[in-house]
């Protein structure tokens, strides 16, 4: 089984900020994660990461706020997308 794309979404805001969401179902667990998903949820501007959720190989589920990195307690795709959206809305100061 190859990786299967589950979510692929891109939003470009008038101020140049970008949301880029990619989630794949993979045939084997990513090292450090306890599920069969590979994901990258990005919010920022070109060459400027402001918020990012990912599960880079060996690091497991985690999120970045600017230069700060912390573990993320993955529950489900739906919860992760809601948490990401909430973080972006707080940073932007508006609902998206």
How can the largest sheet be summarized?
6 strands, antiparallel
Percent in strands: 35-45%
- How much helix is in the residues? 10-25%
Q: What's the number of extended β-strand segments?
A: 6
User: What is the oligomer described by this structure?
Assistant: single chain
- Calculate the terminal CA-CA distance, rounded to whole Å: 35 Å
Number of domains: 1
CA gyration radius, whole angstroms: 13 Å
Low-confidence stretches: none
List the secondary-structure elements in sequence, H or E.
Answer: EEEEEEH
Find the structural class using helix and strand composition. alpha+beta
Estimate the global geometry from the Cα principal axes.
Answer: globular
Describe this structure in words.
- InterPro entries: TumE-like.
- By secondary structure, this protein is of the alpha+beta class.
- It has one domain (4-90).
- It has one helix at 77-92; strands at residues 4-12, 18-25, 37-45, 48-54, 62-65, 68-71.
- Strands 1-2-3-4-5-6 form a six-stranded antiparallel β-sheet, covered by helices on one side.
- A hairpin with a 5-residue loop joins strand 1 (4-12) and strand 2.
- The protein is globular and about 40 Å long.
